[in-house]
Structure formats: structure tokens, C-alpha cells
Write a structure and sequence with these properties.
Length: 380
């Protein structure tokens, strides 16, 4: 272990990653695997087979008590009180002025609300939520739980081989879950919380497991022929292709939901109620009244544009910024996300990006760049 790594938190699977030859890097205060055999190979494997990600740095929380959903709605714009047991909703944690403090997934377990928040912000999120929620609610940080993500078109077939059972007879199996559904399960007497969700645009699952059993589960999954471990590098290129924003890069406290192109997270019922943090400011931009907007970019040539590059006008004056960028292994071309003036946000609009004093031609593109492959419930 290097001198620098001594100051980083260690994942329950840290030694497991090293034994598999992972290259470890600092991320969100943890030492985490960035790649095993290479980002390109791991990316393509996830798009065609099933990749196994360790996302145990994420914050897993439980909110318990009467009126938990109603209380959480005061600082999120999602319709959480209408969330049925076993269902998941993506929402945003909003500051009192409407700025985005984090994005998160909320599951109604039927007993409480289970939240997954970003690793780099989890402690600030917990402090903010505790300051805003009533005293009768209990917010627990599940620090003794690891979190694995199994992602890819063969994820369901691979997971089925482990013969994971629902906690009660008659409840759905993991294969029966649809996108944004979750449930409690047992595997060899180990309790698992499994959701059909993820951060790659592919079908797949996120699996919460007691940290003491994380190596056992990860080994069983990695031993399956469809599954290979995948690091942070491919996770980032996969989510970029899927058009999914990364907190701290593509959004932050200075950004409002409409600007972030996350208007879908402002549910109709909550817009009509207007009783969430920063609602007046947030809704003043809805649906398309913001001055800027996060968009996708196709980049001309082969040179990627990176976070921090500047969007400029014809006179080379700065009018926006690139927040994520890289080479798309699936499309075999560079792509990016950027904030541009709303007037330039239409698909097909020509954009100029300046990077290291060189101007690069780009075009506003629809997101996701690569179509999502979620296992959605058929519409009746």
C-alpha cells in the first residue's frame, strides 16, 4: 500500500480487487479500482456481456418513521409519497435556493425509505437531511453494507445462476423485477437488497450486501462466464454514452434542475404543489426558461474534449463549458456534455469548443448517445 493510499478509506473488497490485478486510484476519499484489463475492453464487455462494479463508496441510507416520504419531499422535487412498495424513484436533493446538492435513488421498501447517494457527498447529504427532517424520523447510514452493480445484457441470466431467492414465498425473483423495482432476497442465508437499476444505460442490478459477505458474493459473480470485474474508467465512459450526469462535474449547487436537463425529475404533482426547497426559483425556469442547458455534443475529429474546456462564440468569447468528455468505444468517436446558452441547445446546432487554445467544431446531439437497454415493464 502506497503512502498516499494510507490516507484513503478502504473498500470491503479492496484486497479482492488487488488480487485480481486492479490498478487502484483515489476516488471520493476511497482507494478504488480504475481498471483491470483495460478501459476499452471492460467497456465493450459490459455492453455485450455483464460487468461487475464495486460501488461500495456510495452512501446507503435508511429513513424510518411516520411521514418519512412527505418529509423528504420538502427537500426533493420527486413524488415520493406516491411511491409504491418495491418501486424506485430518481430525484434530486435541493438546497434552500433550489441548487442541486446531490442526485439520489429512493426506494420504498415497504418498511422505510432506502436511499443511495453519491460517495463524495454522502456525509454532507446526511448532515443536511438531518438538519431539515423532523426529529421523529431516523436517518441511518448503512456503513456495514457493500454495494455491487452487475450491468449488461447478460446480467439477468448471470444472476439467475446464483439461485437467489425472494425473502418470502410468492414475492418476485430478481429476474421478475423490472427497471426501477427492488426487493429483499436471500442467497445462502445472506440477506441481499436487489434493485433493477444502474448507471451504465444497460439492463442490470445493484446489490446491497453485508460487508462481511461482499467477497463471497463478488467471487461467486466473477466466477460466472458472463461476468468480468470492471473499474471506474469504464463506468465513466458507459455513463457518458448513456447521457447520465455525474454529480460534481455535470451538476452542482450552482446548477438548477432545468439547467441540468433534469426536468423529468420535477414531477407534475410536485410542480403543482410547489412546496419543495427553492421551488419558486426552480419552477421559474420550467419547462425551458433557463438561460443555459446541459446538452450532448458530437465532437469533430478524433481528439476528445475534456471537462473544463470552454464553449465559445464566433468572437471567441466564453459562453459555456464542457463538464464531461471522452472517446465513445461504442460509437468510435469523441462525445461530451456541456452547458450552452438555451438558444444554442437544439439538436444539430453548431458549437465551438476551445481547448488548449485550439478551437474544435462540435454539434449538439441527442442524449443518450447510445440507446438505453433497460428492462422496462411493458405498457398496457
Amino acid at each position: 500500500m502506497s503512502e498516499n493510499s494510507k490516507n484513503l478509506k478502504q473498500l470491503p473488497l479492496g484486497d479482492w480487487h488487488r488480487d485480481l490485478g486492479a490498478r487502484m486510484v483515489p476516488f471520493a476519499g476511497y482507494e478504488m479500482p480504475v481498471q483491470y484489463e483495460g478501459v476499452m475492453a471492460e467497456h465493450i464487455w459490459t455492453r455485450t456481456e455483464a460487468g461487475l462494479f464495486d460501488v461500495s463508496h456510495m452512501g446507503q441510507l435508511q429513513l424510518t418513521g411516520e411521514g418519512a416520504a412527505d418529509a423528504l419531499e420538502k427537500i426533493t422535487p420527486g413524488n415520493l409519497s406516491a411511491l409504491a412498495a418495491g418501486k424506485i424513484r430518481y430525484t434530486l436533493l435541493l438546497a434552500q435556493d433550489g441548487g442541486i446538492l446531490d442526485d439520489l435513488m429512493v426506494t420504498n421498501t415497504g418498511r422505510n425509505l432506502y436511499l443511495v447517494v453519491n460517495g463524495a457527498t454522502k456525509h454532507d447529504d446526511i448532515a443536511y437531511m438531518r438538519s431539515q427532517l423532523p426529529d421523529n424520523l431516523t436517518l441511518d447510514h448503512l456503513e456495514d453494507a457493500a454495494l455491487l452493480a452487475l450491468q449488461g445484457p447478460k446480467a439477468a441470466a448471470a444472476l439467475a445462476k446464483l439461485n437467489i431467492q425472494p425473502l418470502q414465498e410468492g414475492w418476485p425473483t430478481p429476474a421478475d423485477l423490472y427497471f426501477m423495482e427492488a426487493g429483499p432476497f436471500l442467497w445462502n442465508d445472506i440477506p441481499l437488497g436487489i434493485s433493477r437499476s444502474g448507471y451504465t444505460g444497460e439492463d442490470g442490478y445493484e446489490i446491497s450486501v453485508p460487508a462481511e459477505h461482499a467477497v463471497t458474493l463478488a467471487t461467486a459473480l466473477a466466477d460466472l462466464e458472463e461476468v468480468r470485474p470492471v473499474g471506474l474508467g469504464a463506468r465513466d465512459s458507459l455513463r457518458l454514452e448513456a447521457g447520465l450526469p455525474l454529480y460534481g462535474h455535470d451538476m452542482g449547487p450552482e446548477i438548477l434542475p432545468v439547467e441540468a436537463n433534469l426536468s423529468f425529475a420535477l414531477s407534475k404533482a410536485r410542480r403543482e404543489e410547489g412546496n419543495f426547497a427553492g421551488a419558486e426559483r426552480v419552477l421559474s425556469q420550467y419547462p425551458n426558461k433557463a438561460g443555459k442547458k446541459r446538452v450532448g455534443l458530437f465532437v469533430d475529429g478524433r481528439q476528445p474534449v475534456r471537462e473544463g474546456a470552454t464553449v465559445v462564440d464566433d468572437a471567441s468569447a466564453a459562453i459555456g463549458n464542457v463538464t464531461s468528455g471522452g472517446f465513445s468505444p461504442t460509437l468510435q468517436r469523441p462525445i461530451a456534455m456541456a452547458y450552452v446558452p438555451m438558444a444554442l441547445s437544439e439538436t444539430g446546432t453548431a458549437i465551438i469548443v476551445e481547448q488548449r487554445k485550439k478551437q474544435i467544431a462540435c454539434t449538439v446531439a441527442d442524449m443518450p448517445f447510445v440507446p438505453h437497454n433497460y428492462h422496462r415493464k411493458p405498457k398496457l
